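Q: I'm writing up a methods section and want to include an example of the input and output format. Could you take the sequence below and give the corresponding predicted C-alpha cells, formatted cleanly so I can copy it straight into the document?
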Amino acid sequence: MLPPNYPSPPGQPQLRAFRLRTLIIATLLSGIFGGVIGAGVILILDREPAPPVPEIATAAPEAISRLVETAITDVVESVGPAVVTVINNFPPRRTFFGGLIESAASGSGVIISSDGYIVTNNHVVSGAQSLEVILADGSVLPAKLIGVEEYSDLAILQVDGDIAVPASWGNSDMLKAGEPVVAIGSPLGDFTNTVTQGVVSAVERTIEIEEDYFLEGLIQTDAAINQGNSGGPLLNTSGQVIGINTLIVRGSGSGAVAEGLGFAIPSNTARAIADQLIAEGFFARPYPGIRWVNITPSLASRYRLPAERGIFITEIDPKGPAESAGLQRGDIITALSGELIDENHPFRNILFQYEPGETVEFTYIHEGTVRTADLTLGAMR
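A: Here is the clean output for your methods example:
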C-alpha cells in the first residue's frame, strides 16, 4: 500500500523521468549497500514475472488431499511387497495331563536387502524354536535368526527365495513434527500388510521399558499401531523407512486411557545396529565388568547408604575393566564422566553413550570416600 503522501502515478513523460531518477538513486544506493537494493528496484519497475509458485501451495484443499492420497498410494505400492509377517513358533508346552500344546506369536518385519535380510523387533522373535516369514504375496518361507540387540529391541532375520525389491532407509535425523507418515504391518497377525497413516507427533521421546533402562530418541506417531505391527516399517512419503515400529502406550499409571500413541525406533539407529548384526552377528555394547543394583532413596534410607542415587556393585568380573581400574564389590558408582546417575539418567543409558574401547571416568564411593577411576570399557555381546 502506498503512503498517504505518495504522489499520484506520473504521466508517460514523467514516468520515464521517474524511472531514470529511480535508477540513479538505486545505483547510488547499491554502491553503499550492495547490489541487492538496486536489483530489487529494477525488478519492481520492469515488472518481471515472479517465479512459479509450487502447485501444492496454490491448490484447493481437495486437490491437496488428492496429492497426499496419491503419495500414500505410491508408497504402499512401492514398499508394500517388502513388508512381511513374522511367525514365532514357540517350543511345545506339556500340559498337566501330559499332552503337548503348540503355540505361536506374530509380528511384522521389512526386507532391507536383496540378500533376504529382514529387520524386526527382538521381542517379536524372543523365545522362538523356529521362525517363518509370510511374504506379501502369501508365500511362506523359513527364516534364520542372524542376531538380536536386546536393548534397542531389534533383530535381523534372513530368508532364501524370491525376494521383493527391498525397502530403502531414510534419514530419521531430518524428521520434524507434523510430517505425514505411513505404517505397514500385520496387526493381530491376521490382517497382513495393513496400511495406516498419520503424522510424526514428536521426536526424541523417551519410554521406560525396564526399571533401570529407557528407550531413547523414539519417534512418536499417531498412525494406528496395534499388536502385531511390531517390527514393521514407519515410512515417509518418499517411501523410505524412517523408523521401525516397536511399542504402543495405551494408558498411564493414573488409569487414564490414550489412543494414537505409537513409537518407532529411528531409522538411523536401526540401520547402524542392523549393519553390525549382519556383518558380525552381534552388536557390541560397552561392558564395565560389573553386576549391580540401582539405588533409590528408599533403598538408601533402609541400608543407610551414602548416596540416594547411583548403582551398588554386587559383583566384579575378575577379568573385567572394573577390576583393572580398582573398583570393588560394595562400591557405589554415582557418575560417569561427570554425568550424574539419577531417575531420569539411569546408569545403563549413560553407559550406552560410549563405545567399547573408550576410556570413561567413573566417580564412585568407596568406604565413604569419593574417588574417581579411569575405566576402559570392554565389549558386551
